[in-house]
Every structure is written in C-alpha cells, then in structure tokens.
Amino acid sequence: MSLLFYPAAAIALFATLMVITRVHAVHALLYLVVAQLAVALLFFLLGAPFAAALEVLVYAGAVMVMFIFVIMMLNLGRPTLLQERGWLPKGIWIGPGLLAGGLLAELLLVLSAGPALEPHWVPPQRVGAALFGPYLLAVELASLLLLAALVGAYHLARPYLRRADQDDTVEAER
Fold it and tell me: What are the extents of the domains in the chain?
C-alpha cells in the first residue's frame, strides 16, 4: 500500500501548493477540495476509515460549503459579475479534475485489493467523547477562529459593498 500512499501524498501536497498560490478564491477552493479528498484517502490507507469519512463529510463537505457561502455573501455587485465569469474559464477544471481522477483511481485500486491494514473500528461515541473530552478547548477555539474569520471577511469587504451598491444605484438611474 505504500505504492498508493506516496501518489496520494504528492497529490495532497501539490493541491495544497495550488491553494496557496491561486489568486482567485474559487480556484483555491477547487484545489482545497482535492487536497481534502487526498488527505481522506491517506487516512483510509493508514487504516482509519472513520477519520477518512469525517474528513470527506466535515472538511470537504461542510467547511467548503461555508467557504462558498462566504464568497457568495461577499459578492460585490454588478462590477464583480464580469470578473467572476472570468474566474472559471473552461480549462480551469482540468487541473482539479485530473488530480481528483488520480485519487479516484487510487481509491478504486485500494478497495479492489482489500485492506492492507486491518482497520481498528472505533465507535462514533468514543470519537465524540475524545473530541469533547480532553480536546474540548481546541475544538471550541477552532470554531471561534472560523467565526472570527467570517466576521473579519465581512467587515473587510463592507466598504466595497457600499461602493458596489452606489454604482448599481447610479447605473439604475441612467
């Protein structure tokens, strides 16, 4: 299984590098989803299917939906509509699509070969007790950090929202 571990790790590293270097938030989100799926595959390969499932559901699912919601909330009006159309040209899906296809091929290969490591099944109650037991402070601090980032992003974009509303009002009067 180490032959499958290294390509998944390479995809995770490459996708993370692409997240850091992208200018447009939507491009970064596409690569971030691929990076989260690669990390989930790494968890699965290491014999932790529950952690892999949580990675997909919580991070690749819920957190990405929150990020997309924030991007939609910070929509800056008509001037940015043309800019957003340029963010997703037809070829932008090629990179994340190829990386996700490589991860899918690896996952299918792993599932067809059977488990290399015997998974240690942990009931969800124990995971919850561990998260909200000794790690309660870390979980709550992470949630407060995400809330602070959301509020900060809104306040940073507020002057642009006012300008966009004024531009739309002037354009509507014409």
Answer: 2-122
Q: Which one-letter amino acid corresponds to residue 83?
A: Q
**What is the pTM (predicted TM-score) of this model?**
0.53
DSSP, residue by residue, 60-84 = IIIIHHHHHHHHHHT---HHHHHHH
pLDDT tens, 27-38?
888 888 889 999
Amino acid found at 55: E
Query: In angstroms, how far is CA 115 from the centroid of its own chain?
Result: 27
Closest by CA to 95, choosing from 21, 40, 41, 1, is: 21
The Cα 74–Cα 22 span in angstroms is: 18
Query: 117 in the Ramachandran plot: left (φ > 0), alpha (ψ -120 to 50) or beta?
Result: beta
Are 45 and 21 in contact by the 8 Å Cβ rule? The answer is: no
> Is the CATH number 1.20.120.1200 carried by domain 2-122?
yes
Q: 88 — alpha (psi -120 to 50), left (phi > 0) or beta?
A: beta
What are 75-97's pLDDT values in tens digits?
655 666 666 666 667 777 788 88
Q: Report d(CA 64, CA 21) in Å as an integer.
A: 18
How far out from the chain centre does Cα 84 lie? Answer: 19
Cβ-contact 35, 16 below 8 angstroms: yes
Radius of gyration of the chain (CA): 20
